[in-house]
Give the backbone structure.
Amino acid sequence: MDSVIEFVVGNLEAAGVIGGYVAISIVGVAIATLLIRRRFANRMFSAPRWTHPIIGAFLGVIPGCGATIVVSSLYKKSKISFGGLFATFIATLGEGSFVLLGASDEADVEQNLRAFVIVNIVGFITGSIAGLVIDAAKVRRDTPKTTEIEGDPLAEVDTDEGARANPLARLFIEKVGFIPLITMAAFLFPGSIMALWGGGIGSIEELTVWVAIAFATGCIVHHLIHRFGFDPACCHNTTTVYGTLVEAVVDIALVVFYVFIGLMAANYVIDILVGPERFDAWMTSSAVLVVIISALIGAIPGCGGMIAVAAACVTIPNFPMAGLIAAAIATSGDGSFPLIAANKRDAIVVTATGLLLAIIVGYIALLLGL
């Protein structure tokens, strides 16, 4: 029993430490997105149609799922081509970006950044080319027509979260759960920054461990309440700083939740079921199978599958880069939910085509030795 508790607590600590780095990236990207949203939107709407796939791929490589949600909304309002939509979904890493941008005892900074850059370059090129081909072939001749919405053209798909949220869940997400998590993230922030250069704060090292455990536990509770108290397609109002931070904490909790699940599964299989040496040998000899499995996991709607694959890449020795690339191309991020709600046929086409392309590109990457 003690060993089980030790195993769970150890993985909670690791997830919490990674969460400290994740919080830095997510909050930074969220605030930057808030500041540039309107100006960038006006430029994009005036762009020629042939540039939509390139613009979509560029948006896709922005860390997080915000771009896929935004582009799904633009597609719904006939503001971007189907090729642009497809390019965004192909290029995105979703919330898996923040796992690779993280650094901890479970991750090597240089190796993670290298993986992040390589995957984004491959995703951008693949998404741009695929989107241009799709638009040129007129695979989808017209986009859904809907009534134009006044206000911020890049506002989230649905900002009236109160209409589709349990009142108690809303109170927890916006107040009771938000304040402790953002406070703990702020506490972990200095140590996370110093750790990037191999440093730390020795005087609060033990306290940091407990805060990391509490932070991971809080994120798990937060994600479950948000998951079952809110409609999956429902988003928070991100036109204000407070709303942006609330949504950022939602994203942080989601990433930490799946990182914890991924760490638990990986460490159980490696350390208990198989053994590190045998598992390492299996990973090296079974890269072909790993590519397919990673692509299938990445194709699961939402960001959970991509986060799990990214966490596996971070923690499992010799995890093939080709597997990470396949998962990244297959994933559609949280933008898949509003797309499914608006047009199930297009969502199926994007997912199925993206999965096939992911396996092909994954095997090409494997042959090239990436």
